[in-house]
Design goal:
about 120 residues, two-stranded antiparallel sheet
Length: about 120
């Protein structure tokens, strides 16, 4: 079985460059929370019900410029998605930071005095 790197090396340089450009375009695409909600055909009322808050709270949340990651994650999940945190560095491909949601969830459970889940080590 070939590795991804081997497969990519079989593609012409021109095609590889097109793939890199398109990847950058997709990663660079940004939406506000309101645009995200509209894109998945949800209303503020629907999202508010899912998050057990009022429609006015969703309106304020969508206008905020500074959110806790847990608040952002909950909002994204309420509109049917999942949140991935990506770090970007000059001259490097973007890097997704894994396990962050689990850390935030564990911290939230700690605040609520709920024991964190442990993973099976099979």
């Amino acid at each position: 079985m070939k590795t991804l790197e081997q497969k990519l090396n079989e593609i012409s340089r021109e095609r590889q460059e097109k793939i890199k450009v398109r990847t950058r375009e997709l990663v660079a695409r940004e939406m506000s929370l309101q645009e995200l909600r509209h894109a998945v055909n949800k209303t503020q009322k629907t999202v508010a019900r899912t998050l057990n808050m009022g429609q006015d709270g969703i309106s304020r949340l969508e206008k905020r410029s500074d959110l806790l990651l847990s608040t952002l994650r909950n909002y994204v999940e309420a509109v049917g998605g999942s949140l991935t945190l990506v770090a970007q560095f000059p001259d490097k491909e973007p890097i997704a930071i894994g396990g962050f949601g689990e850390i935030v969830a564990a911290e939230e459970k700690k605040k609520l005095n709920v024991a964190p889940l442990t993973r099976d080590k099979r």
